[in-house]
Amino acid sequence: MNATPPAPFTLPRPVGAVLARLPAYPGSMLLVAAINFALARQLPQDVKDILQGKRLAIRVRDARLGFDFSWNGQRFAPSAPQANPDLAISANAQDFLLLAQRRQDPDTLFFNRRLVMEGDTELGLVVKNALDALELPVLAPSHWSPRAVLERKAPHLLRQLPPLPAFLKPRP
Predict the structure, then answer these.
(1) Of 3, 10, 24, 52, which sits 20 to 30 A from 77 (CA to CA)?
(2) Residue 34 to residues 14, 40, 47, 49, 116: CA-CA distances in angstroms?
(3) What are the extents of the domains in the chain?
(4) Does the pTM of the predicted model rise above 0.85?
(5) pLDDT at 52
(6) Which helix (H) or strand (E) holds 25?
């Protein structure tokens, strides 16, 4: 969280109105697939035990999207939208992106009322502390670029690709 975060941005209402028409369940499926791939294996067992059977929700206010899921003991699983999850975390799309990139501190967003936790606040603190304890590259977008994933998972395939043009190479 070294860089100064950008000024707050809210998606325009017409964009939120269009996104609100999307069915909720496929979005929850995509979110849990990403969470399971990127984070689930790194969660400590005591956190997994606390999450067991808990109903969780991520609400993206400006996009008017909700993602509902739970931990089933092995992985996160999508669920139908729930009126009263055990923990609901709400923020605008930009704030979630800044959190994922570690460019904004969750406490700052919380105290500025840009990040809201509703429901079991003790569970919310467990989730927050578990995410804070994860290694930084897990949430960095550059960690999930196709080349970065190939480099970690299939370096032999990466060697078969042509080199990146100079204008696409990451800056030092």
Answers:
(1) 10
(2) 27, 9, 18, 20, 22
(3) 13-135, 140-172
(4) no
(5) 95
(6) helix 24-38
